[in-house]
Write a structure and sequence with these properties.
The complex is a heterodimer. By secondary structure, chain A is mostly beta strands. Chain A has four helices and 16 strands. The longest helix of chain A has 21 residues, at 193-213. Classes of the chains: A mainly beta, B alpha/beta.
Chain lengths: 431, 151
């Protein structure tokens, strides 16, 4: 199902793109404002201590690339149509499959009220909508406490409609708003975040099944084997954002939220051994599966943000929390960057994320460090030309909250390092 | 290994707010816009324009003139006049202005102002395009366009 959605979306995007380019000359005359832009980036990612974001990252990997092509047209006075084709390779995620990243029609009735419909970027935080646009920031990775790359594929855009506008407040600045509703599309339910999601369920279910089925006469061992036929949908989602651009040049504050529901099913496959106490009876070994069904309210996720660009300095900070059925996670960061010259900048941020804010110390968890992740990042950016830049950044990390597998109840502490690091090197071209 | 301290959230938000207060009470040098003259298409019947309105037009947040004509801003690609306009009138560095528009382009929110290789090319665009707005140096006196005063 997920593949068909991806192919369907891609096909739709290509069709629209081709229509724009190869429209009959009588129609093409209306597209005087046809506009193209794009970027290509290639990176190298290496972690020590734990695999992170990209599988086998401890070995170092260059499966860390992105490319995008944007096209706009203005077929009527107040109407604009745009789309972005996007591909990335992020270890097991993406694999350079081209997807329709966003595509929508935008009718701007007035500056204070416009309407969009299609696949639209989710306005959460200050940077979710531009999270993969390497050329608009000094860092390679945005703070993962707010912008978790593992869920990028379904959190960046929704399919639906939104209302938006911009109100001039005179001497008090400008207020931008967006209100949206639709659904999230999960392009691949077998990889990345979802792989860990179901694996965690299977790992945690196995000892429970063993205990439930064992008797004084029979010992049952159950081992989780794999996930089969996973399916995952977010049937609805809605949210909104407000950004106040203050009269002080460069200073803005924002707040955003969204809610959604997660419905998923998968077969969890187990290897089962039935071992009778009586040694004369033969043990039994077989493989079985359980149909797991998830119905989870997600949200609200609330983010508050502040950014100040003062001469050569940029300061930004954001905090967010996310309510689940069984708890609240939260995270925050503080970031600064300084423009050394027209071509070079240095940046640093400190980010912290807690999957359960009522248990920040990991009390009673199999691996306490899975209750937090704190990341100190130091980076450097240099523009070789106005359209070509390189970046390097190093991260010093304490905790395992976003390290896949560390939260499993069956975790082996020796498989993880509580204090670890990673670095990334990346070059980007854009036009 | 750097020892990452435990810190309660939001301290950096407080820091940003403090910096804001400091900046608000600081005296900033007033911008000089005397080196740049703003021009519009001759059919637009305006003589003055607030600087804040002009900034909104070049940021894509003001899309209509009072007579409902679509605003079509134009830029010179580079050079001293362009830098003077962006810095002194739009109150941004050219790098930040470009970054702002890249953000909009790659999120589907807009297309940057048309840019031209020379002052003459921009004048020709403004002369020929209803709803257009551009700028020239204060020593230029182009024909066929309307000069407006910023206030």
């Amino acid at each position: 199902m997920s593949n068909s959605i991806r192919v369907h979306s891609f096909g739709w995007g290509v069709m629209l793109f081709v229509l724009l380019i190869f429209a009959p000359s009588s129609s093409r005359a209306q597209f005087d404002d046809l506009f193209f832009s794009g970027f290509v980036s290639q990176g190298y990612f290496n972690s020590t201590g734990n695999d992170y974001l990209i599988s086998d990252s401890k070995k170092g990997t260059s499966e860390f690339s992105e490319a995008a092509l944007v096209c706009y047209a203005n077929p009527a006075d107040r109407l604009r149509i745009g789309l972005q084709l996007f591909a990335r390779d992020f270890g097991k995620i993406g694999n350079n499959n081209v997807i329709l990243d966003w595509a929508y029609g935008d009718y701007r009735w007035r500056d204070e009220l416009g309407f969009r419909a299609g696949k639209i970027r989710v306005p959460y935080g200050l940077y979710n909508q531009v999270r993969d646009v390497d050329i608009v920031r000094d860092q390679i990775l945005l703070p993962q406490s707010i912008y978790d790359e593992r869920i990028r594929d379904f959190i960046t855009a929704f399919e639906g409609a939104d209302l938006y506008g911009s109100f001039s407040l005179g001497k008090k600045g400008v207020l931008d708003y967006e209100a949206w509703a639709g659904a999230f599309n999960v392009p691949d339910v077998t990889r990345g975040f979802w792989d860990g999601f179901w694996n965690q369920a299977g790992e945690e279910l196995a000892p429970f099944l063993a205990e439930q089925n064992s008797t004084p006469e029979v010992v049952v061992n159950v081992q989780f084997r794999n996930v089969a036929e996973p399916d995952m949908v977010f049937p609805w989602a809605y949210g909104g954002s407000l950004i106040w651009e203050t009269p002080l040049e460069g200073l803005r504050f924002g707040s955003s939220f969204f809610r959604t529901e997660l419905d998923g099913t998968a077969k969890l496959v187990f290897d089962v051994a039935v071992l009778p106490e009586d040694e004369e009876e033969r043990p039994e070994f077989f493989r079985g599966d359980i149909l797991a069904d998830v119905d989870l309210d997600v949200g609200p996720m609330v983010t508050v943000s502040a950014e100040y660009m003062l001469e050569r300095w940029t300061f930004a900070s954001e905090y967010n929390y996310l309510e689940f059925d069984d708890g609240i996670s939260d995270g925050w960061y503080g970031l600064t960057s300084y423009q050394l010259t027209d071509k070079a900048a240095v940046s640093a941020y400190y980010a912290a994320q807690y999957p359960d804010r009522s248990n920040r110390d990991g009390k009673n968890l199999p691996l306490p460090a899975s209750a937090w992740q704190r990341d100190l990042s130091l980076g450097l950016r240099y523009d070789l030309t106005p359209n070509w830049r390189v970046k390097y950044e190093h991260h010093f990390v304490d905790g395992l909250a976003q390290v896949d597998g560390a939260e499993f109840s069956t975790v082996n502490p020796d498989d993880f390092e509580e204090r670890w690091s990673y670095f990334a090197l990346k070059t980007s071209f854009h036009f | 290994m750097v020892n990452v301290p435990k810190t309660r959230g939001l301290w950096s938000l407080v820091l940003v707010i403090c910096l804001t207060v400091v900046a608000l009470v600081s005296t900033r040098a007033s911008s000089s816009i005397s080196t740049v003259v703003v021009i519009v298409h001759p059919e637009l019947t305006i003589d003055t324009l607030a600087v804040e309105e002009l900034q909104l037009m070049y940021l894509g947040k003001r899309s209509r003139w009072p007579d409902d004509t679509k605003v079509k801003p134009g830029l010179i690609k580079s050079g001293a006049l362009h830098e003077s306009f962006v810095s002194d009138v739009l109150d941004r560095t050219p790098a930040k202005f470009n970054r702002y528009w890249k953000q909009l382009v790659f999120t589907g929110k807009g297309v940057p102002p048309k840019s031209f290789v020379s002052e003459d090319a921009l004048i020709e665009y403004v002369r020929a395009t209803p709803g257009s707005i551009g700028y020239v140096s204060s020593t230029a006196h182009p024909d066929g366009v309307r000069t407006i005063v910023l206030n």
